[in-house]
Amino acid sequence: MARLDTLLERNRIWSEDVRRREPGFFKRLSNLQSPKYLWIGCSDSRVPANQIVGLAPGEIFVHRNVANVVVHADLNCLSVVQFAVDVLKVEHVIVCGHYGCGGVQAALEGMRLGLVDNWLRHVGDVLQKHRALVEALEQPSLRHARLCELNVIEQVLNLCQTTVVQDAWDRGQALAVHAWIYSLYDGRARELGHGVGGRAELADTYAQALEQLTRPLET
Length: 219
Fold this sequence. Notes:
About 50% of the residues lie in helices and about 15% in strands. With about 220 residues, it is an alpha/beta fold. Helix 8 (about 140-160) runs antiparallel to helix 10 (about 200-210). The longest helix is centred in the C-terminal third of the chain and has 21 residues, at about 140-160. It is globular, with a radius of gyration of 19 Å. About 30% of the residues are buried.
């Protein structure tokens, strides 16, 4: 079996560096987890949640999957959401997609990659629902970027319709859900106009987010 000595050595160096700079860091980290944020993002190795928003370990709870999809039948994702909302009492959930997403590209082009094709069918459904918005753009790169944005907006809608989020709002818990898109080209994240803080806001913010996509892309 091949060993990962290089990674273990890097871990040792990192650990020693952290302990030198903050002697009590790991003790504090082991005794408490109280993040205010849940991040639902893509598994893409170029999109690390903590680094993007400049937060330390323990400050953001993270769930990642291919193409940042929220599916009502995905007990993995829903369990993370439930634990974050009901137990950790996070105040914000960020669904963050990214331009240049390979999963979205595969769904857009109808590529066959294997088992993951079944998962990406959810992104294909977003394409079918909003095909006119995507095909209104002539350049393939812009079509891809538009589908990345639409996918985030639809996943926020899915998340807001889960029983976990709906129940939290019904009991008056402070919880906001945000739609973000991240650019690999400049390292910046931006909002997609779909920030929701309760049932009454959902329909309007969803419509506003779709309307906003008629404006020029910022990739």
